[in-house]
Design a protein that fits this description.
Elements (H helix, E strand, L loop, with lengths): L1 H12 L9 H28 L13 H21 L6 H23 L6 H23 L2 H16 L1
Helix pairs in contact: 1-2, 1-4, 1-5, 2-3, 2-4, 2-5, 3-4, 5-6
C-alpha cells in the first residue's frame, strides 16, 4: 500500500512539464494513491489487532458512518482538485494527491478499527484484494502490462475469497 501511494505521487512529480498528464494517467495515479493508502493503514490496524497490540473490540465512535462519508467526500474533493488541475504535476496537483493519501489513510485505519478482531482474517483478505487493485492501477499508470495483469489477478482472487 505504501509503495502504491508513494509511486503514484512520485510518478506524477516526475512527469515532464512539456508533455503533461493525460486523464488515464491522472485517474490511475489517484486510484493507486487512494487504494494504496487505505490498504497500508488498514493492514497496520489489522496487524495490531491480531498481535494484541490493539484491542480486538470494534471501535464504536459515535457517528462512525458519517465520519466515513465525510472522509470519502473530502477524498473525492481532493481527487477532483487533482483531476481538474491543468498540469497535474504542479504544486496543487501534488498537494491534492498528498491530501488523498492522508485522508484515505485515516479512512482505512478507521474502517478497519471498526471491525472486531475475530473478523480480521476476512479483512486481511479484502485488503490483499485492494492491494491487487492498487497494483493494477499502477500498471496502467506506468504502462506496464505485467503489473496490470498481476494486479488484476491478485485483486480478483482476493475478491473471490
Amino acid at each position: 500500500g505504501l509503495a502504491a501511494a508513494a509511486t503514484s505521487i512520485s510518478n506524477v512529480m516526475a512527469v515532464d512539464p512539456a508533455h503533461g498528464l493525460d486523464m488515464t494517467h491522472k485517474v490511475t495515479a489517484y486510484l493507486g494513491d487512494f487504494i494504496g493508502a487505505v490498504t497500508m493503514t488498514g493492514s497496520a490496524v489489522a496487524f495490531g489487532k491480531l498481535h494484541g497490540l490493539l484491542k480486538s473490540d470494534p471501535l464504536n465512535l459515535p457517528f462512525k458512518n458519517q465520519i466515513n462519508l465525510i472522509l470519502l467526500a473530502a477524498n473525492l474533493a481532493c481527487g477532483a482538485a487533482f483531476l481538474t488541475s491543468p498540469d497535474g504535476h504542479s504544486n496543487v496537483g501534488v498537494a491534492a494527491l498528498v491530501g488523498v493519501a492522508a485522508l484515505a489513510g485515516i479512512k482505512g485505519a478507521h474502517m478497519t478499527a471498526s471491525i472486531g478482531g475475530a473478523d480480521m482474517p476476512v479483512v486481511i483478505t479484502l485488503l490483499n484484494s485492494y492491494s491487487g487493485y492498487a497494483l493494477c492501477a499502477e500498471g496502467f499508470m506506468l504502462n506496464n502490462d505485467l503489473l496490470t495483469a498481476v494486479g488484476a489477478l491478485i485483486g480478483s482472487s482476493g475478491a473471490i475469497l
